[in-house]
Amino acid sequence: MSLRLTILGCHSATPRSMAHPTAQHLEINGEHLLIDCAEGTQMQLRKFGVKFSRIKHVFISHLHGDHFFGLPGLIATFRLLGMEKPLHIYGPKGIKEAITLLLKLGDSWTSYPLHFHELTATGPEVIFDDGTLSVKTLPLDHRVYTNGFLFELSPGERRLRI
Question: How much is the average pLDDT of 68-78?
Fold first, then answer.
């Protein structure tokens, strides 16, 4: 099992010289996941050497700008880099409307498939499961609909050292 969490930004609703708005990159067994995507996320991904092309899933906790305003730019950058594989975006109801409107107004539609998974459940629910990794929502109390995310690995085969 391989797990690596990189905090790209936290604890700052506005950019500061020593603090960046919220975003985390999680690598689990070769799967690259982005959790929230505030402004400046692309620069932080570059700083920490994360290859953009490996990100296939983005999880947005809620629709406050300091958690998702970097996503339209990241989507546009993926297009400029020639991304062809689908990008899955998990977030509150309204994420699709917000992102597609910005892409439409900027005439920046993607050359790759965008799959929006809009969340509305008021209790925990599994929103991703590939047999090895599952992601479950954890509803949180905030001014707007908000989820935390629980990432769980399925137990692998046990190996007995004889």
Answer: 95
Kindly indicate the confidence band of residue 24, based on its pLDDT and cuts at 50, 70 and 90. Answer: very high
pLDDT band at 54 (very low <50, low <70, confident <90, very high): very high
CB 75 within 8 A of CB 41: no
Question: Torsions phi, psi of 127, nearest 5?
Answer: -115, -10
Catalytic residue from among 66, 107, 129, 130 = 66
Tell me which amino acid residue 48 is. Answer: F
pLDDT at 94 over 80: yes
b/e per residue 85-112 (b: at least 16 CB within 10 A): eebbbbbbeebeebbbebbeeeeeeeee
Residues near 115 by beta carbon (within 8 Å), at least 6 away in sequence: 86, 87, 88, 89
Active site residue 141: no
Full-prediction pTM beyond 0.90?
A: yes
Torsion angle defined by CA atoms of residues 37, 42, 47 and 53, in that order, rounded to the nearest 10 degrees: 100
**How many beta carbons lie within 10 A of that of residue 59, not counting itself?**
25
